[in-house]
Amino acid sequence: MASRIVTWSPRARNARVEAFLKRPAFDRRAEAVARQALDQIRLQGEPAVAACVRKYDGITLPPAAWRVGADELRAAARQVTATDRAAIREAHRRIATFARAGMKRNWFMASPRGGRLGERFVPFERVGAYIPGGQVPLVSTALMTVTLAHVAGVPEIVACTPGDRDGKLNPMLLHALHVAGATEIYRIGGIQAIGLMAYGTRRVAHVQKIVGPGGTFVTAAKRLVYGDVALDLVAGPSEIAVLSDGSVPARCVAGDLISQAEHGTGWEKALLVTTSAAHARDVAAAMEHQLTTLPRADAVRRVVAAGGILLVVVRSLADGADLCNRFAPEHLELMVRKPTALLKAIRCAGAVFLGAWTPESAGDFVAGPSHVLPTGGAAAMFSGLTVDDFLRRSSIIAFSRADLWDTLPVIEAFGRMERLEGHARSARLRFETD
Questions:
Q1: Do residues 162 and 212 both lie within one domain?
Q2: Would you call 330 a catalytic residue per the annotation?
Q3: Which of 205, 229, 234, 417 is the most buried (most CB within 10 A)?
Q4: Are residue 219 and residue 269 in the same domain, yes or no?
Q5: 361 pLDDT higher than 90
Q6: Is 279 labeled as catalytic in the residue annotation?
Q7: Domain membership of residue 8 as a residue range
Q8: Whole-prediction pTM
Q9: Annotated catalytic residue: which of 263, 331, 333, 371?
Q10: pLDDT in tens, 58-89
Q11: How far is residue 297's CA from residue 248's CA, in Å, rounded to a whole number?
């Protein structure tokens, strides 16, 4: 790890740091594969989805077996320990509480001449949530997506997640989806899940919006179906940045960096930015030590080999904040003595974690805000998933006669400027008598 320690400043940039920052949000090669599969699903429906399951997952899964039934859900609940059921309930409670607190409400204001203006928020009728499978069951992602849709009032919530080699789903994941409020669950993953939700089939109605994180091919597929459905954000392989002044023990910082690198795709990114070279060396040593006992150490070492972990020494916390903003990470920890004071310097991050007692894992599992966040630098343009992503906004305009008369000269002026006489006439006609 010591070879990964470099220095950086806005005035003397480092080529290794610049290369680290320039990770793509989308993989163009994956898009080519996804486009071909999605075209087949759009045209052929169920046979194309089944063919993709055989091709990419290596299993034969007839359409009649895609949907998880009530008996399977009840059986899954019985397999989950009381401790795990309690953890799922507590996380769900906290996520739902946060979602309800942040939910947009309809509002109105008086117009200048006695009318009303405002906004109205209405839930989608049918949405889809993608829950990654891969090497680990992301039970928390089921809660961090479906719970928000349920709180928003979406009546039909479809969840897609890949099964194992036998097509079976993890019982804890199934139980979490049930608790969160999923109304339909399908054992379909990857590109084919995005196509299934976006285009629908004879058995499965298409959704209006797709949310949830995924790997390279899922992210590419989501990008390609945009317009056929609405989307949430770019949420690919996980990443973290830690800005540290050395006041938090190196073992804690090392553990936080490792926590995101252990997901296992090999595309994860973990960045330490610190004002202390000694602290950077201590963190590197702590990471090596922790990897000797970590069950998923091989996954972390794949990230290291791919250049996905970098430790950077900067002259000041201001420079460090500058670098973190350029990185625009999914997760940003401010492990400094005065994190709240430094927060005002942060502009681009999916979620910000303040202080020594706020590890990123708290946000992953239980804090309340959704952990579905922008990756690949997309935090400079996108925000994380919220309950509002499941609501449609309509502006409401209710003019009085006096309001229209008051604004008629402006309407007519714009009609002249834009050569749209019909627009102006539609307003003027209301004041003419037969």
A1: yes
A2: yes
A3: 234
A4: no
A5: yes
A6: no
A7: 2-25+237-367
A8: 0.93
A9: 331
A10: 999 999 999 999 999 999 999 999 999 999 99
A11: 23
